[in-house]
């Protein structure tokens, strides 16, 4: 049996150390998964089920994974942090070697990955799902230091950003202003900022009813817009003001200490709490490995998710150029399965599987008030593009439908339970 790295071993309960962590037999194919979030954890778990003959290693720097999905509910006071925090014990029990470290260099020709702790891992196929990076200074003045005053809370990491935003909301005066800066497309989770507005409004309505939310948007339209706007009117009245790009919503500059957000036309908004969600790119490791193009995202073959620049590396989740597909946890999970099946087929010398991708994005617009959008996607024959299957999708119906909203909030809870089980159990 291969020894588990000491740092990982120390954090695992004794019971799990006795679990059948697979050593690699001579000649056994190696699947290396980098990133243990929605794409990576789903891939590692699925690989163990689909191809027990393959040795699976997962590299992830965080000891536990905090999900961005349902993070907004923590802001709303409807969940606490433990409810969105997940351990890797289930994957270890399934025979995944979990290495708590960060990939710092990829050599796609030699098929090796260098880790921050000094270890080098060789692979036959790699699944890379490192998520996003924030484009510091794309908004003038918004750099990593600024995020300590104006949190983004858009990458979960160790949870510090989400906790900071929640503390700021709790500390602000009644009658204060919460401003959000919302980025242009493409970015992680198209409906996420609007669910965040809703959950902050839910919190404020109960605790600071005279407060206002000013949502400054670099776009003119957004996901599930009529449904969100109906909900805001019905649940929060005049509390939420959404300012689109054509009404001077685009934030160009921030002054973190003064709490100022400045827009394209030079309007200066002072906020008691500022949640700045900046423009994004693929995570640093994907860019440094030369996998991304000038867009900052990784072009892939949509049948297998192999990076165009590096055969043998399947890039899934938010880091790839997703075409028509939104950057969602649901799709990271769905495409993880296709990427693993393609990688395993290649290792077995078998034909690749037939691709089809699913997405349902639920959002909570209030307590017991769920809305959703559903789509199914397929790539074209040569894998150069991916499109929605005609008439495959849709959104929740509009109207005064309290029972529908109540049920969709429950379906959303069910989705969260089942996808996190599909990643970590
Ligand atoms: C507020 C919010 C709400 C959301 N709500 C929903 C929702 O309701 N439904 C939905 O489907 N999606 C939702 N999303 C989107 C979802 O979180 C992402 O689409 C999903 O996390 C993408 O998965 P991923 O694997 O690409 O990245 P992640 O899940 O972020 O995982 C990336 C992992 O890679 C690790 N990593 C990074 N660099 C390295 C490295 N160099 N070496 C090793 N590991 C590395 C990171 O530590 C991280 O654990 C939401 C997002 C936000 C911000």
TrEMBL record:
InterPro entries: FAD/NAD-bd_sf (IPR036188), FAD/NAD-binding_dom (IPR023753), FAD/NAD-linked_Rdtase_dimer_sf (IPR016156), FCSD_central (IPR049386), FlavoCytC_S_DH_flav-bd (IPR015323), FlavoCytC_S_DH_flav-bd_sf (IPR037092), SQRD (IPR052541). The keyword Flavoprotein applies. Residues 163-278 form the Sulfide dehydrogenase [flavocytochrome c] flavoprotein chain central domain. Residues 353-424 form the Flavocytochrome c sulphide dehydrogenase flavin-binding domain. Residues 1-25 form the signal peptide. Residues 30-142 form the FAD/NAD(P)-binding domain. It holds the Pfam family Pyr_redox_2. Keywords: FAD, Flavoprotein, Signal. The keyword Signal applies. Gene3D superfamilies: FAD/NAD(P)-binding domain (3.50.50.60), Flavocytochrome c sulphide dehydrogenase, flavin-binding domain (3.90.760.10). PANTHER family: FAD-DEPENDENT PYRIDINE NUCLEOTIDE-DISULPHIDE OXIDOREDUCTASE (PTHR43755:SF1), PTHR43755. This is FAD-dependent oxidoreductase. It comes from Falsiroseomonas selenitidurans.
